[in-house]
Input
Amino acid sequence: MTDGFGRKIDYLRLSITDRCNLRCRYCMPEEVPFVPHGDILRYEEMVRVCAAAARLGVDTIKVTGGEPLARKGCAGLVAALKAVPGIRKVTLTTNGVLLAQQLPRLLSAGLDGVNISLDTLDREAYRRLTGRDELPRALDGLEAALAAGVRTKINAVPLAETGREGLLALAALAETRPVDVRFIELMPVGHGSELAPFGQNALLAALKERWPGLAPTDEKRGNGPARYWIAPELKGAVGFISAVSHEFCAHCNRVRLTSEGFLKLCLCYGDGVDLRAPLRGGASEAELEELLRQAVLQKPARHSFGKGRAPEGRIMSQIGG
Output
């Protein structure tokens, strides 16, 4: 499946819930209401969309939320997605709090990898940022994933309030563990526009000072746009996903399906197509495929993050991480 600019679209980010057991300030503060249960796609509806996407060339699914492990039956969904013809890889993005408990079922279902969102290793800073005192359980989830040998990455949003030393402490996880630590630039979507980022250039300079042998690598370490750096002292790698300052739109290979069944073509904009209505209105498999095909042709050439707050009116928990 290609879009109107010739980009191959083979990656679908699937949000299965808007609910979360944390309240990160840039994603889902306390005052954000939940979407009514009846508006959320059923698992079988999600599998239908993913199967239609697979017939058009999508081979990788990232299960996200909210917090996907907060929805019952996530492992069953992973198994159903892995059984879809054409789906090569199913991975999960989680805050890690519920991961240790659910990981055995997820691995039995065929989960191929896990990304753990973790912005600080300081317990009090974690509580201030997430609204919950759950750092020990998040770290238990990380250690459980590493012990199980599943491909594990850490996603961290570098914030000014975390500071240089706090970010270096996160990066140092790649020194003692075979884990990739990726710093994802704060994007002006929803409440993300209200916080101050820690810039990539300053962070990279600090990392090079800590590990003088740090050097970029062209090694493919995932399905996304991260640019990785390695050093002799590191068991893992350090990565950057900097959509605002280092745009990678020309190579974008993804679309997103929100938990409400809205197919988003670009994180920056609100444009897309509602798939919930046709799913519940009796659309055939061929009709679903055509809806996907026509929607992808409308995918924009690039975002406009550099111009300030994104036009997208949804917050990140409603979109999917």
